[in-house]
Amino acid sequence: MKKGITLLLAILVATLAFSQNQFKTPLLQSDYNYNSKDIPKFIKQTAKSKKDRVKIAFENATGEGLREAFCPYFADLYLGKNLDKTNEKLLEIFTTNDAGIQEIFRLNDTWCLAFKQIAYHMYYAFGAKSNRYPGRLYPETEKALLELLWKKAKYKNDIHLARESTWWMVGSENHDIVAKVSNLISSQIFMNEEDFKDRVYPDLGTGAGEEYWFHHMYGKERISGPHGRANNKDGKEYTAADHYKEWVQYFDEFFTERAKKGFFLEMASFGYMAVTVSYLTDIYDLCDDKKLKQKAEDFLDVVWADWAQEQLLGVRGGAKTREKDGTRWADAMYRFARFYSGGEGSSGTHFFAQLLSDYEWKPIIWKIALDRQGRDEFASTSRQPGEEEGMMPRPLGTERSMLCDTESRFVRYSWITPDYIMGCQMDYPLAIHSHLSIQNRWQGITFKGENGPRVFPTPLILDEEGEYKDYADGYTRCVQDENVMIVQQSRGFTVVNPDWYPMKSRANLEYGVYFGNEHDTIVEKEGWIFVENGGAFLAVKPVMGEYADGWTILKDNASPGLTSKIFDDSYSWNKDRSLIHLKDKYAGVIFESSRRTHHNTLEDFISDIMKNPITLEKTVVPGFHILKYKSTNGTNFYFNLANNEIPMVNGKSINYTPDMVFDSPYLKSKYNSGIVKISKGDEELVLDFNK
């Protein structure tokens, strides 16, 4: 009996391993040598294996985890399995008043990120009018699904919101996109359904975020919250067809505006990009309006071209916003890209939609993504949205909304090489942040290698054992030029929250630098920490001067001269030597990187770095300094650690409103032009979003 069980387990393990490894993608292969002639072959192989990859993904569906409960039922519908039982169970779920069942399937959360997407994909994939698998959703089940979808959509789908700026976002960027894409798709469904096409929406006109109320979403009492305070109701009655027309116009402008001014507020977020990108892809796949469908496809091409140039082995580098854990690497875009490039897929929430999608990477995106060595070293800059309009009192009805319709002064900068990517986001010191534009901001270096090893500045908190650990909710000022970045915990910044949101403090935290334990070598010398990882090198220097702990007037005597002594003993390691704690929480931290093509050995790199001049110039009050650093390539950096003065590179202040919204060898667009050029060698794709 034991032998039989052992053999069965061995077979199951082998089968699972085969299903996970049979579909390989060059994107994730570190030893792949790029050849442009391979691209047609890869595209053909990806298309040929797609059906099998989709099938395996649905066969491995699981209902475990937040917002995943519907996934096994969707998988059974796709696979055509247990249709009687599946429909019976779904009918029960769609019509239940049992609070426990509603909780499991998130049906008591009006703003659940998953249900509406699951619902409209069930309708289009398995309903009576489906072009894919019609009838797998039985008539009674489909009717119950549509009634529930109407119930969940009718108050959120307020036609007056479609007439507001596309830069006014409800709650968060991902929640906003979920709500509004769902409004578009559900309107399209209802206007073509006899039982719904003549129904009149409430259209309260009280403002965005109806029932977006955390006491309701996550609390036990399930309070729905008040209406917004606007009075925009116009006395007219609107049906689904009216709503559909307005939302088509809204998203036509949405895509144009983001092509002109940049994307996303939640840029490169580990999980939220799964939400945002999958819902925008749904417009391409499901919307019947041909013009909007084409614009959605063009926009997705820009999104993926931007991603393709800024990743190594599928792992994205550069600055990230709303990144709760800076050590995670297999993010949403990694998982999407793995499937697009011929690897395994996922039938989990949001990812399942990709399995049904017709969107594919253009050949030029394949080429940018795979030609790691050919890309060599280059800078990529882009302007980012998220700055608030800064008006008070804020318009009535925006009590749950960000108002980001402004010429945002945020610049995302990445230095991209075949061995590492280093990046940050530079924000104008007087910019007015939204409540999310500064949340969990990540900047640092990501090395090429398994699991994307990285080094980054981070706020710290003490764990139960009194050891410091990295903590996401801080905010740093920064400046970067090519392979050099300087950061400091921000001493102050301006934030405007929606009226009904609390103002959370993100200042005066303990700070440090996370290194992890995945590097080949770490060496310390005279206050510098040197890292070797694969073909890349990194030098990190926390710069601490006199009176970091404070200065007592008339009792202490500052040192003579105009410059401060720089202390080498400026940090301490935690127990497992994965991070350092800065002894001065407002110390400036220098990051300078290099590659083996420039320095043959780590010792050569250390020798050059140690020659670089560092100066801490005193300001009026002891303990506050201006940091000056001359890098290995001769670039001069000026960074005021005492206040929010704009940093300078080679004597020039940082420009937070560059002429280009996208600027790299592979992606170019003049700010506010709406014309985006994607290039690779002699190949060019020009996308005009003004049409």
Give a nutshell description of this structure.
The protein is of the alpha+beta class and 691 residues long. A hairpin with a 6-residue loop joins β9 and β10.
3D architecture notes:
- With 691 residues, the protein is of the alpha+beta class.
- Helices cover 31% and strands 21% of the residues.
- Helix 4 packs parallel to helix 7.
- The N and C termini lie far apart (70 Å).
Relevant terms:
17 helices; 691 residues; 31% helix; 6-stranded antiparallel beta sheet; alpha+beta; 13-stranded antiparallel beta sheet
The unreliable regions are 1-20
Q: pLDDT average, as an integer?
A: 94
- Sum up the overall morphology in one term: globular
User: What is the straight-line distance between the termini?
Assistant: 70 Å
**Gyration radius, in Å:** 27 Å
Main sheet overview: 13 strands, antiparallel
Helix content: 25-40%
- Counting helices, strands and paired strands, the structural category is alpha+beta
- The total count of helices amounts to 17
Strand content: 15-25%
List the helices and strands and how they pair.
Layout: H1 2-21, H2 38-59, H3 71-79, H4 83-95, H5 99-104, H6 115-126, H7 139-153, E1 168-170, H8 173-191, H9 214-218, H10 240-261, H11 272-286, H12 290-309, E2 311-312, E3 315-316, H13 332-340, H14 351-356, H15 363-370, H16 372-375, E4 378-384, E5 401-403, E6 410-416, E7 420-427, E8 432-433, E9 444-447, E10 454-462, E11 468-470, E12 476-481, E13 484-489, E14 494-495, E15 510-514, E16 521-525, E17 528-533, E18 536-543, E19 571-573, E20 579-582, E21 588-595, H17 602-610, E22 614-618, E23 625-630, E24 636-640, E25 648-649, E26 652-653, E27 660-663, E28 667-670, E29 675-680, E30 683-688
Parallel strand pairs: 8-14
Antiparallel strand pairs: 1-5, 2-3, 4-6, 4-27, 6-7, 7-9, 9-10, 10-11, 10-15, 12-13, 13-21, 15-20, 16-17, 17-18, 18-21, 19-20, 22-23, 23-24, 24-25, 25-26, 27-28, 28-29, 29-30
